[in-house]
């Protein structure tokens, strides 16, 4: 297909990335200022005679010898072994921005008890006394101590930095008896420091509030492995940052982003985890302005008593990693998650920001997207193509061209004259439609969404107080101010069925361009001095704009169903807590092998920072994947949480059946494998939803005592049962798979071959091989037949794959509900079953007595792997006391037992006895 031109742009891809349009550290003024100031080493001191304590927190003043401006520090103990440190100006000229709406509720505090201390020290302990905060007055430092071991030191490098708000010096000069400012006013003329004005190319950022940046260092003792702070197209383990090479957190639309690069792309979660043998911790820096993070690991050295203080003296030889956070604005508000296990840290983080929303079942199936499916006929033909080739799929997607001139909530009448009819077609196959809705609104007096938003003052404003205007897909547009709760409420109401003409209950949403993307804007985004609700500058909250967009969309979908149905919303931009509203994808990747490879660490990083529902465009958005790459990408994507094929408008068509019979078969097989495993996926999402554990897990999370796993990113665990090592190299004939755990046994998912853990095995791979291994000790529920879509499979039978551990036992779970409503929550309409195999008996029992859901589904097949001896009999034993013999097949070569044609109701208690 020839490249299509957008009516408003010469060629949409002319707007594409050129790295020069983005800033690196040395072009960021607050970075330069902090570096320059820190080289002067001017220390802060805590005034411990100012300490006050109340139910919630302990407060004291901090003062810097140069600026003499008083800061106020507050330390909170939070339930679940979390500490919070807030630092703000004691009396700022005007309030500084504090990020709202991210914490799910006001964190419940535990009273900290002041144990001892004199004017030079203060020790605060939580009730149990296991965790303590040692505060040293001069220079100001905080050590977090667990069981007499210093885990984290704050400001031990003296990088606390706080630019207090000032009056612009011209105004100040006019005032008599002005006070001295912390930053030398003579420097204000030095453009280089960008205090009141910062230039980048043709853009000038005028800063009405002047410099307001903050910074702080954290030393993580004994830690060399750090992860998190998405989103970067980088390795899973964070790298040491050299000069001017900090990880940047600034949400940007970076078309075809460069890989192995620390530049900020679409979303930000200012949260990192650190892991060492015996402990995992987290640091959550709650700030939504532009943020930079430097990381610097020092190898193990011997510390002297004076360097570390008396408590630390016990552990003299340790490596440590310094983490330096710097943000352009706001306050210091940081949560220290003390673990000690990876699972504890996941729980602590979700206690603050919420867990992954429980997705509707359909959204775990395969999604078919492209920019664009041309018209209703095209949709019909592609939909039929899936049936013709016997490939399941769940959702057809329509990109921006489905609208009337990129006016969201409308339909191009020529291409989509009857959207309801099109949705009825999809509904008849139990499939869904997903359409796009971006945050920019075309300036057009005849477009009702625009007119209503304008009339109500719902757009972001410019410096002059007028609606901000910028160019995006529709041409000149204004941008909805989702930070305003009224705007969100109104936007949500646009999804009501009578309002959104042509929409039905099978239509779901895709939020794109919500960094926000502003063509020809500075770094392709909004000016930092644009004004939001509450008179806050865009700079204060840039990174949370997309979060609010998705929040309002998800709320709209819930409301249109009168609170009954779970929403599905995919977003490109995100922030900490976005997991509560839906799914995230990795944006405009490229059809190259290296992008397939990097999708794994990118998704692992999102997963451990709370966002379990994530994926990358299958095939690569930009360009045309060679056939082998496309097949490998489908195979990898089938084992990643959000599974969508997508391509840009000038890429060749790439529906799964366009690459010859054999490749169609391979893609079909990969997608069908996904559908077979849906009961396991759905159960994992439930676990993420209620117990905060990521669906896709780096190896170190499951094997925290195994050093070798700490930097692995070419393979990962899906839940705790499956290890996946996708093929990401062309023409591969083998892959080296590390099977962790010295007491583990692993079974090849297809051949049933088994290996003991703790070794690397060379696995031969053909083009149809997806290297997946089941961990001994697990039971994985599957569906035995695959239908057109998840909806077709509701009644189909289950199978259980029981992989025995070295001790001959296994456990697993199945979660089941109606797949779409909130009844699981409000009426406890769900089934949560537990399968355990021990002493040759497999038991199906209830894992949660609160749940009830009628299901006629049966377990039809049971496969037991690792059974060393052929049984003489197999019987089933149901709760009504009936015993029945069962026919079985045993294969001595693979030590596997197969039971077929069973009819054991999934919802009732029963046993299978192997004698
Ligand atoms: C950018 C998105 O990343 C891409 O997925 C989409 O197709 C285009 N915008 C057009 O909407």
From TrEMBL:
Q: Which GO terms describe its molecular function?
A: alpha-1,4-glucosidase activity; carbohydrate binding
For the Glycoside hydrolase family 31 N-terminal domain, which residue ranges apply?
74-293
The biological process GO terms on file are: carbohydrate metabolic process; N-glycan processing
Q: Which PROSITE patterns match?
A: GLYCOSYL_HYDROL_F31_1
* Keyword annotations: Glycosidase, Hydrolase
Q: Which CDD domains match?
A: GH31_GANC_GANAB_alpha, GH31_N
Task: Please give the Pfam families that the UniProt record associates with this protein.
Answer: Gal_mutarotas_2, Glyco_hydro_31_2nd, Glyco_hydro_31_3rd
InterPro entries for the chain: Gal_mutarotase_sf_dom (IPR011013), GH (IPR017853), Glyco_hydro_31_AS (IPR030458), Glyco_hydro_31_C (IPR048395), Glyco_hydro_31_N_dom (IPR025887), Glyco_hydro_31_TIM (IPR000322), Glyco_hydro_b (IPR013780)
| Gene3D superfamilies recorded | Glycosidases, glycosyl hydrolase (family 31), Golgi alpha-mannosidase II
> Which parts of the sequence belong to the Glycosyl hydrolase family 31 C-terminal domain?
693-780
User: Where in the numbering of this chain does the Glycoside hydrolase family 31 TIM barrel domain appear?
Assistant: 357-684
Cross-referenced PANTHER family, in alphabetical order? ALPHA-GLUCOSIDASE, NEUTRAL ALPHA-GLUCOSIDASE C
**Protein family membership:** Belongs to the glycosyl hydrolase 31 family.
Q: What is this protein called?
A: Glucosidase alpha, neutral C
Q: Which organism is it from?
A: Macaca mulatta (Rhesus macaque)
Q: What is the lineage of its organism?
A: Eukaryota, Metazoa, Chordata, Craniata, Vertebrata
């Amino acid at each position: 297909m020839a490249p299509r031109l957008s009516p408003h742009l010469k060629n949409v891809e002319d707007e594409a990335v050129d790295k020069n349009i983005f800033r690196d550290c040395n072009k960021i003024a607050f970075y330069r200022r902090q570096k320059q100031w820190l080289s002067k080493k001017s220390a802060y001191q805590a005034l411990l005679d100012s300490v006050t304590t109340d139910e919630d927190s302990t407060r004291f003043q901090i003062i810097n010898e140069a600026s003499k401006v008083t800061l106020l520090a507050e330390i909170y103990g939070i339930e679940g072994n979390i500490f919070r440190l807030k630092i703000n100006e004691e009396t700022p000229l005007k309030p500084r921005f504090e990020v709202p709406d991210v914490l799910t509720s006001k964190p419940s505090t535990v009273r900290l008890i002041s144990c001892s201390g004199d004017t030079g020290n203060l020790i605060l302990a939580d009730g149990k006394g296991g965790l303590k905060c040692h505060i040293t007055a001069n220079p100001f430092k905080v050590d977090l101590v667990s069981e007499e071991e210093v885990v984290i030191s704050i400001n031990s490098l003296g990088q606390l930095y706080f630019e207090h708000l000032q009056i612009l010096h011209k105004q100040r000069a006019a005032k008599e008896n002005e006070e001295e400012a912390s930053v030398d006013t003579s420097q204000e003329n030095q453009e280089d420091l960008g205090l009141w004005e910062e230039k980048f190319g043709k853009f000038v950022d005028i800063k009405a509030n002047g410099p307001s940046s903050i910074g702080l260092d954290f030393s993580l003792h004994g830690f060399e492995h750090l992860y998190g702070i998405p989103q970067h197209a980088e390795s899973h383990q964070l790298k040491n940052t050299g000069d001017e090479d900090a990880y940047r957190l600034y949400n940007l639309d970076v078309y075809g982003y460069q890989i192995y690069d620390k530049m900020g792309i679409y979303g930000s979660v200012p949260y990192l985890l650190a892991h060492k043998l015996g402990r995992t911790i987290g640091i959550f820096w709650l700030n939504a302005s532009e943020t930079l993070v430097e990381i610097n690991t020092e190898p193990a050295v011997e510390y002297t008593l004076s360097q570390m203080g008396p408590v630390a003296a016990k552990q003299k030889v340790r490596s440590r990693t310094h983490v330096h956070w710097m943000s352009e604005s706001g306050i210091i508000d940081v949560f220290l998650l003390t673990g000690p296990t990876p699972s504890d840290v996941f729980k602590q983080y979700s206690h603050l920001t919420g867990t992954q929303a429980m997705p509707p079942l359909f959204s775990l199936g395969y999604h078919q997207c492209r920019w664009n499916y041309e018209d209703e006929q095209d949709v019909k033909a592609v939909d039929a193509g899936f049936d013709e080739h016997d490939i399941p799929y769940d959702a057809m997607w329509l990109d921006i061209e489905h609208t009337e001139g990129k006016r969201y909530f409308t339909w191009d009448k020529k291409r989509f004259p009857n959207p309801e009819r099109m949705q009825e077609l999809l509904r008849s196959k139990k499939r869904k439609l997903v359409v796009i809705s971006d945050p920019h609104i075309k300036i057009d007096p005849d477009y009702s969404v625009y007119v209503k938003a304008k009339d109500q003052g719902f757009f972001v404003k410019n410096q002059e107080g007028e609606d901000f205007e910028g160019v995006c897909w529709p041409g000149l547009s204004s941008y909805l101010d989702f930070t305003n709760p009224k705007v969100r409420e109104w936007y949500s109401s646009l999804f009501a069925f009578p309002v959104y003409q042509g929409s039905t209950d099978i239509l779901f949403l895709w939020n794109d361009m919500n960094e926000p993307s502003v063509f020809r804007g500075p770094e392709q985004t909004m000016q930092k001095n644009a004004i939001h609700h509450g008179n806050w500058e865009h700079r204060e909250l840039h990174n949370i704009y997309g979060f609010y967009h998705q929040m309002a969309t998800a709320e709209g979908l819930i409301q249109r169903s009168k609170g009954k149905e779970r929403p599905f919303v995919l977003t490109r931009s995100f922030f900490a807590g976005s997991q509560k509203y839906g799914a995230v994808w990795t944006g405009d990747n490229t059809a190259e092998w290296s992008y397939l490879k990097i999708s794994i660490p990118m998704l692992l990083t999102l997963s451990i920072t709370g966002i379990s529902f994530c994926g990358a465009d299958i095939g690569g958005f930009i360009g045309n994947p060679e056939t082998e790459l496309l097949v490998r990408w489908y195979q990898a994507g089938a084992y990643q949480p959000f599974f969508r094929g997508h391509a840009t408008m000038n890429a060749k068509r790439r529906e799964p059946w366009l690459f010859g019979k054999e490749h169609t078969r391979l893609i079909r097989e990969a997608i069908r494998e996904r559908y077979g495993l849906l009961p396991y996926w759905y159960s994992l999402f439930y676990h993420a939803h209620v117990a905060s554990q990521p669906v896709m897990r780096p190896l170190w999370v499951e094997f925290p005592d195994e050093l070798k796993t700490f930097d692995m990113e070419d393979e990962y665990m899906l839940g705790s049962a499956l290890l996946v090592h996708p093929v990401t190299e062309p023409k591969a004939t083998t892959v080296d798979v590390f099977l962790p755990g010295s007491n583990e046994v692993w079974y090849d998912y297809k051949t049933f071959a088994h290996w003991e853990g703790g070794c690397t095995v060379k696995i031969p791979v053909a083009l149809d091989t997806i290297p997946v291994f089941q961990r001994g000790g697990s039971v994985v529920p599957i569906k035995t037949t695959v239908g057109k879509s998840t909806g077709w499979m509701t009644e189909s039978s289950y199978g259980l794959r029981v992989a025995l551990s070295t001790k001959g036992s296994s456990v697993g779970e199945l979660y089941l509900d109606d797949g779409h409503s909130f009844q699981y929550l409000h009426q406890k309409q769900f089934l949560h079953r537990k399968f355990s195999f021990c002493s040759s008996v497999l038991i199906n029992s209830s894992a949660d007595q609160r749940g009830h859901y009628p299901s006629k589904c049966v377990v039809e097949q049971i496969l037991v792997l690792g059974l060393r001896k052929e049984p003489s009999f197999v019987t089933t034993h149901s709760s009504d006391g009936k015993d029945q013999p069962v026919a079985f097949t045993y294969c001595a070569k693979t030590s596997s037992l197969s039971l077929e044609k069973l009819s054991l109701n999934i919802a009732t208690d029963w046993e299978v006895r192997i004698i």
